[in-house]
Specification:
By secondary structure, the chain is of the alpha+beta class. The chain is about 30% helix and about 20% strand. The strands form 6 sheets. It has a 6-stranded antiparallel beta barrel. Strands 7-8-9-12-11-10 form a 6-stranded antiparallel beta barrel. Helix 8 packs parallel to helix 10.
Length: about 700
């Protein structure tokens, strides 16, 4: 035993300490900055950080907020002091972003814990040579012995030191890791790395120590996946940084220009894990793993998170862990393949996954030869494994090539004969479903966020999160993180995923399109947002028992013989005809059932009054019963005497210009964007909602949550 460590962890600490210290930095005011003008001294320590990729430092948001409660965090310049061999250097960095984004608007009080994940990314403003840590690819940490590093001043001068403890559990729904009380955590160590001594990888960022004794909290580095998503057609910050991270270590592994130990070298020298069922041929060697990460990093990123999850499921043989945050890169997929079920060798699962990636759909053209190089490596690596596996991988690759060629030919055919999805329509993939239910007769609400797989896998639902007893005013904050996770899973580089809000008609006035989740922009501006009736109340489904595997309840529209499917098909094709349902010349009215059922199938009923009040509430039920799958609603303006004529006039012009219903969700998003950008010609659309009962997107038929009584 050495300082409370086991023999194996003591040796691991000795091997890893130089690598971690070389990449760990001290964060302080910028030299000559506002805290110490006309000086090259660095000033007091704010905290620690560490290089995760060339030019990028990860730390805690509360570290870069030190001494500047009124200062905007993003864009703030800080000082970074680090060691490069025997030389100590100081450079200026700029805070690129903080997590969560709301820290820019609401800071905690002095000495209070900052909201999770409490992370900040700093971009170094000058090219410098430095070391980088090795980040874990696992979605959740293993509870083993760890070391944490940061800046201390035990001897009167700042230096990077390391101490050991064990992981004791998680907190914050997995966003934070609990540390044991084996040693003291000092204030200047905040923002430093937490290293798994068994696997030699950074798993956390040191956040806080307990006020009443030893131990503390660290933030899981997996929370980097919650970085703001990129605009369409761009590569996000998370993917850019992880690509640079993997290529850095790949280049170091291949280089023979010096004999300094690399992380890959040390991984090969770490003491073996006791009782590892995948030891030997069952796991990739450290060199093979580094090479695989590098080859994956040279490919374009996946088009969406769901693509990664689907390939992992194929390689693993079961659905991967659905807990957040979603996998965003090819690397993240590898992290879901550790310790596969049923005694399957980990190396075999990873090689199957790499084979599928080599023939996958990429979000942009691949660098010539990059996919072939990945396959050549897989084939060569399999030579040391089992002969049946080599044959299986070869057949898998041939099938993948054939399928990719089929998709290419189909895409070329669509280019000649017309697109499969007409321009301006909804993306055909997965959507995010938000369900909200009233909690009995109280003004409290239960909610659930899920991912609907889309028309290609109708009825397949993956839960994200749920909650009970929220107030209407508290819903936006309670749903901020679950919705962001759902969007990460569903958004692609081509389009933002659809958000479907399934609520009772009395809640159709819920201003979900105005909520801000990420990026500081309202949801209705970022993506299409539509309303749905709760499960079991979908007349657009011709046969609910087939569309909903759980069996939907019979709807009045089916009993009355209303052909809702014909209405849906007709209104999708257009042209569109609007009809005021709850008013006539500005005066309220209740539509008769006979009148509604007798309107043409291409009619779009329009409501301009409050959804939770009569006659509009009754009208919304009536148009649903009559089989209308496309309906327009509106949250009335604050002024009670305002005329609804501009709304009806603008909507009639919009429907005429759209021509067909299939483009309405995206056109309404564009209208919201114009109004958000201060276009007076779009102000009439404020508060407009679209009821969208797509039969190809059946809702789950499970009963709502029940909270405490």
């Amino acid at each position: 035993m050495t300082d409370g460590r086991t023999t194996g962890s003591a040796r691991a600490f000795e091997l890893l300490e130089p690598l971690v210290q070389a990449a760990t930095v001290r964060v302080h005011a910028p030299p000559g900055g506002y805290d110490n003008p006309r000086s090259h001294r660095t000033g007091p320590t704010w905290g620690s950080g560490f290089f995760i990729a060339p030019g990028w430092v990860l730390t805690c948001a509360h570290v870069v907020g030190e001494g500047g409660a009124a200062v905007r965090l993003t864009g703030r310049e800080v000082g970074i002091t680090f060691s490069a061999g025997s030389i100590t250097g100081t450079v200026t960095g700029r805070v690129e972003c903080v997590l969560p984004e709301r820290l820019e608007e609401r800071r905690p009080g002095r000495h209070a814990l900052w909201d999770l994940p409490d992370l900040a990314l700093i971009r170094v403003l000058a090219p410098v040579s430095h070391a980088c840590v090795w980040l874990t690819d696992r979605s959740r940490p293993r509870f083993d012995e760890v070391a944490y590093f940061g800046c201390t001043e035990d001897l009167g001068t700042p230096e990077i030191t390391g101490r050991t403890t064990r992981l004791r559990g998680t907190a914050g729904n997995g966003a934070a890791i609990r540390l044991g009380d084996d040693d003291e955590i000092e204030a200047g160590m905040s923002g430093g790395p937490v290293v798994d001594l068994v696997r030699g990888e950074v798993v956390g960022v040191l956040k806080a120590r307990r006020q009443a004794g030893g131990g503390g909290l660290a933030v899981s580095v997996v929370q980097l996946r919650t970085l703001p998503m990129a605009a369409r057609g761009q590569v996000g910050l998370y993917r850019r940084i992880m690509q640079a991270h993997d290529l850095h270590h790949y280049d170091q592994h291949l280089s023979d220009l010096d004999n300094r130990r690399t992380w890959t070298d040390v991984h090969g020298e770490l003491p073996p894990e006791e009782g590892d069922p995948y030891a030997g041929r069952g796991r990739l060697t450290p060199g093979e793993r580094t090479t695989l990460f590098g080859l994956l990093a040279e490919l374009p990123p996946p088009s969406s998170s769901e693509v990664v999850r689907a390939l992992v499921e194929e390689a693993r043989g079961e659905e991967p862990d659905p807990l957040p945050p979603a996998p965003l890169s090819w690397r993240d997929g590898l992290g879901l393949l550790h310790d596969p079920p049923g005694g399957t060798a980990e190396a075999a699962a990873m090689l199957r996954y790499a084979t599928d990636v080599s023939v996958a759909e990429y979000r942009e053209p691949v660098t010539p030869g990059a996919d072939e190089e990945l396959w050549d490596w897989v084939r060569a690596t399999a030579e040391r494994l089992w002969r049946p596996l080599r044959r299986e991988l070869g057949e898998r690759h041939e099938r993948g090539l054939a399928e990719r060629e089929r998709r290419r030919r189909a895409s070329a055919g669509r280019a000649v004969h017309g697109p499969a999805r007409r321009s301006g329509g909804l993306p055909p993939g997965a959507s995010v479903l938000l369900e909200v239910w009233a909690h009995g007769w109280e003004d409290l609400y239960d909610w659930r966020v899920s991912v609907l797989a889309g028309p290609a896998h109708a009825g397949r639902v993956t839960p994200v999160d749920s909650g009970v007893r929220a107030t209407l005013a508290g819903l936006p904050e309670a749903l901020r993180a679950p919705l962001a996770e759902g969007f990460r899973r569903c958004d692609t580089h081509e389009a933002a995923a659809l958000l479907e809000v399934a609520v009772a008609p009395a809640l159709f006035g819920l201003a979900v399109d105005e909520w801000v989740v990420v990026g500081g922009v309202p949801l209705g501006v970022q993506r299409p947002v539509v309303l749905r009736h709760p499960a079991g109340a979908n007349p657009a489904v011709a046969n609910p028992a087939v569309a909903n595997p759980g069996g939907a309840r019979e709807h009045p529209a089916d009993r009355e013989g209303t052909d809702a499917s014909a209405r849906w098909a007709r209104v999708q094709a257009g042209p569109l005809q609007d009809e005021r349902a709850d008013c006539i010349r500005g005066r309220p009215r209740s539509p008769a059932t006979e009148w509604l059922t007798g309107l043409p199938d291409n009619t779009v009923p329009v409501h301009c009054r409050a959804a939770d009040q009569e006659p509009t509430l009754g009208s919304l039920h009536a148009v649903r019963d009559a089989g209308y799958g496309v309906v327009v609603t509106r949250r009335p303006p604050p002024e009670p005497g305002a005329s609804c004529a501009p709304f009806h006039r603008g909507l009639r012009e919009e429907l005429a210009d759209a021509g067909r219903a299939e483009v309405l969700p995206v056109r309404l998003q564009n209208l919201r964007g114009r109004a958000y950008g201060a276009d007076p010609d779009a102000y009439w659309a404020a508060g407009t909602g679209l009821v969208w009962e797509d039969p190809a997107r059946p809702l789950p038929e499970e009963e709502p949550l029940q909270g405490d009584l």
